[in-house]
Amino acid sequence: MNSLELSVQDLLVSGERGRTLLTVEQLVVHPGETVGIRGPSGAGKSTMLYALAGLANVAQGQVRWGDAELSTMGEEARARFRRSSVGMVFQDFLLFEELDAVSNAAIATGYLHGSRHAALLERAQSTLQKLNVKDLTQRTIASFSGGERQRVAIARALAHDPAVILADEPTASLDRKVADQLIDDLVALVRQEKKTLIAVSHDHHLHERMDRIIDIEDGRMVGEVRND
Ligand SMILES: Nc1ncnc2c1ncn2[C@@H]1O[C@H](COP(=O)(O)OP(=O)(O)OP(=O)(O)O)[C@@H](O)[C@H]1O
């Protein structure tokens, strides 16, 4: 599935006790675009990713992916949408130390329908290979480096062939060389597979490689720039 346009309109995300965490007047992201999100710490960048994933409390406005209007869908429908269309790469990886790379990347076999298991396993393996992860099954990821773990986390996000990848600080805590290689590989992979990538980051090397960069400040999307 590769054709989900994102349309956000008059969005207001609120947190506990009704505090406004984020407002976005309007944002359209075309299928296959790569978008960086930047801004100071605490500005609302992760909140934006959660809202796009249907994981935030949308108090007002719309978040629409193709025909799926997340703000009017119930929790179960949003979870189904994520399972079919969204791959998430979180800041702290959320991998299982005691499992090997393939088992981590194919972890969705634990909750997806059995008819999807073979394809998922195959994609998990081939994506790990494309991302140059060695030792797919020979050892648990407990002994993997930060860069290798992030690659496994990316392969996991891609394993169910989602149209959209949402990544939170994918290069955080990696040294420059490893981070640059990861950016190259991630961008090559999403472009090759025509996925939409939306990545929160403080890393200007990452932003330089995106089609567009969105600026969030003080709980508000304040503008965007396009890379040529
Ligand atoms: N559910 C919530 N209820 C109340 N406040 C929240 C909630 N979730 C996040 N916040 C607050 O909203 C603000 C924005 O948080 P967010 O994690 O989106 O920032 P960020 O821009 O991603 O920051 P960083 O770059 O430091 O990760 C922070 O002040 C955070 O403490």
Automatic annotation (TrEMBL):
Belongs to the ABC transporter superfamily. One of its GO terms (cellular component) is plasma membrane. It holds the Pfam family ABC_tran. This is Putative ABC transport system ATP-binding protein. PANTHER family: IMPORT ATP-BINDING PROTEIN, LIPOPROTEIN-RELEASING SYSTEM ATP-BINDING PROTEIN LOLD. It comes from Cohaesibacter marisflavi. It comes from the Bacteria. InterPro entries: AAA+_ATPase, ABC_transporter-like_ATP-bd, ABC_transporter-like_CS, ABC_transpr_LolD-like, P-loop_NTPase. One of its GO terms (molecular function) is transmembrane transporter activity. Residues 6-228 form the ABC transporter domain. PROSITE patterns: ABC_TRANSPORTER_1, ABC_TRANSPORTER_2. SMART domains: AAA. Keywords: ATP-binding, Nucleotide-binding, Translocase.
